[in-house]
Amino acid sequence: MQEKETTKTPEFLELADLPVQGRLLALDPGTLRIGVALSDESRLIASPLPRIERRSWKKLLNDIRKLIEEYDAIGLVIGLPLETDGSESPMSAEARNMAHKFRLSLQIPVFLQDERVTSYEAKGRLWEKGVDLIKSRDLVDSEAAAIILTDFLSILKSASK
User: Fold this and answer.
1) Is beta strand 24-29 parallel, antiparallel or unpaired with respect to 3-6?
2) Using CA of residue 13, residue 95, residue 58, residue 40, what is the dihedral sign?
3) In this predicted model, what pLDDT tens digit does every residue of 68-89 receive, in sequence order?
4) Domain holding 83: CATH number?
5) Which of 27, 108, 110, 145 is geometrically suited to a Cys-Cys bond with 37, CB 3.0 to 4.6 A?
6) Domain encompassing residue 92
7) Domain total for the chain?
8) How far apart are CA 27 and CA 20, in angstroms?
9) Contact (Cβ atoms closer than 8 angstroms) between residue 160 and residue 35
10) Of 15, 32, 49, which Cα lies nearest the Cα of 148?
């Protein structure tokens, strides 16, 4: 499988390895926690799943393999944290490295998705839902992963037109 990178516009999208239907799993990588989200089979909705505590590569890979198997996911989308001007951030290299390792370790295509300001948007969404600050700390990573996945699903929809 090849690693794919997307931007917010569909003209840069190459999706040859991705089946037309099936669930997609998304990750919002952080240094301590990784947010997780899943699409439905028809790829209309992205829903947050419980976050994963980041301890080691081996544990992370095992956790992601279990989720892929449990939900029969056919693709993995990893948030690529770019600066607001589109330049690389220190976490961009980490996300690219993670995507590369997953590409080598999994049998499904791995995509990178621009995730600028998703954490801020996730905090705003949780605040609008009335989630208190303490509880939102537990939910924000996976809410951000759901936003990353929603952006990717929008690009897929645009690309299929």
Assistant:
1) unpaired
2) negative
3) 999 999 999 999 988 888 888 8
4) 3.30.420.140
5) 145
6) 3-159
7) 1
8) 20
9) no
10) 49
